[in-house]
Amino acid sequence: MSIKSLSWGTVLFVSLASGLGTTVQAAETVTAPVKVKVFAASMFEIGKNTGDRAGEFQHWYERYWKDSEPVAVKGALNPVYCDGDGVCGSVLGMGKVSSSASMQAILLDPNLDFSQAYFIISGVAGTPPARGTIGEVNWGSWVVDYDLGHRWAPEEGEPGAPTFMPRKGYEAVRLFRLNPDLVTWAMRLTADTPLKDSDAARAYRQRYPQEAARRAPFVGAGTHMTGDTFFHGPGMSEQAQYIAKLYGADDYVITEMEAAAITLVIKRLHGDDRVMSLRGAVNYDQGNPNETTLQHLDPAPGQTAGGFAETVENVAAVGSRMVDHIVGNWDTWQAGVPAPSK
User: How far are the Cα atoms of 128, 183, 186 from residue 36, in angstroms, in the given order?
Assistant: First the structure.
């Protein structure tokens, strides 16, 4: 299917030969919407979609949409691209507001049929050094909103006590357990994906004493914490873990800025049984024992983690395995997530 067919319906004007006293009528034919099988969402791209330094979208674009034409969607930050197999994607924008606004606009576009679509929310992220490493790729088992609640300064509460309390009334919008069968499939299909690493990332890991932080890149799963606040430091990391456990989720392993908001939009329109959150870790959520939180948040030149280029490539490599399996076995997947075999 040509992506040009996604444009507004072609209007055909039928006129009779001159001399015939018949009224000229117009007939309109509307092209059927594209049946989306998988939608891959990224949050930002650094420059162009191909040929320069890659951000979150470029490797996806080069794999699936290099020969596709962009289709503008009213209300979305960036165009949508689709290939002939029903794989579509777009750059939604960073943060909860921008990304969810773009997602809703795309879902409501009449040229796209999402009734049986699977969604991969993909991008880069941070990870606590006790649980993750630079270059790893992680599937979300739960998505939790970090921001919804009450917070106060530590000195204004009991010494050592939590400084967060959930706000009542937000239970249905702050916590999402992603389909366990879908997470199981994702891990089975992608756990052995070869991941790239870099010398800079290897050297940077050695600044941390935690065993997990020193690991080579791997594919894992756990709770993704969504916050517009780019929280940083061991205290904030402990609070994120506290919130995850308070809500009954798995261990907090990824900090990102969009997944909870995007999941809510998809859930309200199509349900969340087919939603996946996929993130690659490009930074630790705190400094090593020899630096302050502010030093880690604003590192000197040459003191960053490294591994960004390899991580965005790893995310697309892992995610595309899932996409290709779903599309290649569409007869099995179109009606819903098949039960994983024992």
Answer: 35, 20, 19
